[in-house]
Specification:
Layout: H1 2-23, E1 26-42, E2 48-50, E3 58-68, E4 74-79, H2 94-103, E5 113-119, E6 131-138, H3 148-217
Antiparallel strand pairs: 1-2, 1-3, 1-5, 3-4, 5-6
Amino acid sequence: MRIVKYVALALLVLLVAIFLNFYLPSKDVVRVVGTDVKRMDVVNREFVVEGDGNTGRNTRDVRFVNAVWEDGSPRVYRNEETDWGFPWYFKFDSGNVQAKAQNLSSTQENPKWVVVTHYGWRIQIFSMFPNAVDIEQVDGPDYTPVPWFNIVFLLSLALLAWVILAFLARLRERHVDPLVDQFEEETAAYRDAAESGAEEIKQQATGAYTRWQRWLDTWRPKDKKRHPPR
């Protein structure tokens, strides 16, 4: 039972870690090489697939920001507003982000390096793109952004979890443990009474059996009696 509890706790921690890794903001130092707008079939807020608009899905124009890492490998972001919905980035300026990306586009001979703040993952097989939240120019590819928001958020989350666990521990100490102790005491008393009653019944049964044997001995010859007379 303890192993099952630990496995369930580990799975819960893993799911929370995956959830936070997907939705918390991340920062990439890349070079913007261009922007694009495509007519896409939007399955939901995170999935978009190429289509012709006749699939019955929600079809709309989706902005994209094309970038490359320092080693030249591609990095593509979508640029969509989150509005008032989840995740609560309250992004209403996708047009401004697109204008920044166009203004900061550069070539390999004359590069401009930027920090793209985004959330989400790039999974090609599922047509998933991280959503660019903001773009800011930096000095070079060696710039190391500090995720202050993530640090403060995770510390706050850890503090909240500690407060909740401490409250639950105190609640258990004050209300649950006394009930458990009382139940165990009553169970022990009932068990002792049952054992005492069982022993008494056993003794009574043994005495009755002995008396029955003595009564039978009164009908046997003296040389075959099992119990000597008292």
